[in-house]
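Now for a typical sample entry:
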Amino acid sequence: MEYNSQKENLVIAEYGRNVQNLINYAIKIEDKEERQNFTEALVELMNQMNPHRKGDEDHKEKLWRHLFRIADYSIDVVPPSGVIPTPEESEYKPTTIPYTSNQRGYRHYGGHIRKLIAKAIELEDEEKKAEFTMIIASYMKLAYRTWNREHYVNDEIIKQDLKKLSNGALSLTEEDVIDISAVKYNTRSNNNNRKRNNNNGRSNNRRRNNNRGQSRRRR
């Protein structure tokens, strides 16, 4: 009895041993035209093993690259693209995708808070810088209360976090009171505007439908 461990190792296991044996047989075909036709039919067989990607041209090129790899690049055939795969291509490693540079921590404030802090630091007008800093602190307090409902938040926590996030460039005094009413008002007004726009759109659609129904009745 012959075991798989005694047979030739599979180069690409997903195609199975029969496909690998057919490729080895194609290498030995002496007639060039017959070898080309046999190999193209073999690629179609490999394509049928993945029917969901049957019409994908990129998938066809991938199959030809796999065929040459299984054949150890010793088969004399030409792919439809005319480009013969080489061993160097199989050793190519794609560029490593770097991780995002976003700093960890303070995620409950959101990713945009760091951009706002960076903008505030760049301001040269001290009065505008102070106003912008207070707006940022108000938003931070609102975000903290939204995502940490079970924990009490006071102004001191927000001031410390703001100072840490800005590396000491932005700070509030002990007398400053962080008020979130302005941020809440802006959020509610935006939501109300959206509701009004939706209601106006619905009422306009109802009027059009009523006008169409009346015109049909008159006819």
About this structure: Residues 185-190 have pLDDT under 50 and may be disordered. The first helix runs from residue 16 to 27. The chain has two domains: 4-90, 107-208. DSSP finds eight helices and no strands in the chain.
